[in-house]
Amino acid sequence: MKKVTIFDTTLRDGEQVPGCKLNTGEKIDLALNLEELGVDVIEAGFPISSPGDFKSVEEICRVVKNTVICALSRAVKKDIEVAAQSLKYANRPRIHTGIGTSDFHIKGKFKSDREEILRRAIQCVKWARNFTDDVEFYAEDAGRTDNDYLARVIEEVIKVGATTVNIPDTTGYCLPHQYGDKIAYLKNHVTNIDRAVISCHCHNDLGLATANSIAGMISGAGQIECTINGLGERAGNTSLEEVVMIIRQHKHLGFTTNVKSQMLNPISHLVSDTMRMPVQPNKAIVGSNAFSHSSGIHQDGFLKDSLTYEIINPMDVGADSSKIVLTARSGRSALAYRFQKLGFSFDRNDIDTLYEKFLLVADLKKEVLDTDLNEMAVSHKKKESAVA
Ligand code: KIV
Ligand code: ZN
Predict the structure, then answer these.
(1) By alpha-carbon position, which residue is closest to atom 7 of ligand 1?
(2) CB neighbours (10 Å) of residue 13?
(3) Fewer CB under 10 Å: which end of the chain, C or N?
């Protein structure tokens, strides 16, 4: 099994989401939980961006013991110096520096040319190497960067000491086969690629962030950058919980992570509460409906054998046990099961009668609750004893 490095950027890319800003205390609490979860790298912030973020990174370095702590910077000397200062208490510091390499960025943002950007890429890695041996270079918008030029940049930054090379699909533009091919291209065309770890950093603008990261991993990337609940700029980043469970559920791929999957739901709730950012109910792994069954066909199968409709045991991801939700689409077996859970046992004829009443109630409501079931059961029992 090949161990994939899980690089968590909830506290940096995730925290960039409007409304998700964290204070130092909140960042420290989440960093300690991320360390406990088993991620390998915590990107703690962007220290030049504000004094508060500098302090957060510094304080996180004091309390986190084993996990690599990473600070982001642009390809600017001052940024890198400030990032290095913020990391001074880290046991395992990493500086993450880089520059946009697509023509969109080179021409549109920097008003520059490829040769000049290559020089700046080399220079920023050299500056960062003055402070630490663990330097990650990002080629921003690598997803839309010409592969030939990208390979040149990556080869040169490895020559001057980049130990991880991040290939971000910054705009979430790539299709999985394109992103996978890009990583394979670098593997085949960068002569010194074996001296660095390739990292995937995929955004979710087309809903493909996780698929692209997995394609990158299959093509040879050794690190995936991701966030809890998929938080991040615009449509978000690759979701950590999805990556971890894909790797776990598809063992035949031959990859593994250090993440304790039972912590995935608790940490998802913690991040959501701390950032005041609700998780969509249908979110894979951590959404409130991820283990709910509501249609009659599914409920009947699930009650006979959970494997018919569930590929993950909710206990493996720290979720509450699976739910049988009653709606107008539910069937008799689900109704009987829910009555049984409330302590009522009814025979087939009773259930047939109760099911007719249930449908009348269900058509008026979004969900039939225990209180409704109790009322139905009590009035049914009363009628039965009156007849007797
Ligand atoms: O999306 C991106 O390109 C980034 C870089 C700063 C790594 O977040
Ligand atoms: Zn990003």
Answers:
(1) 138
(2) 24
(3) C
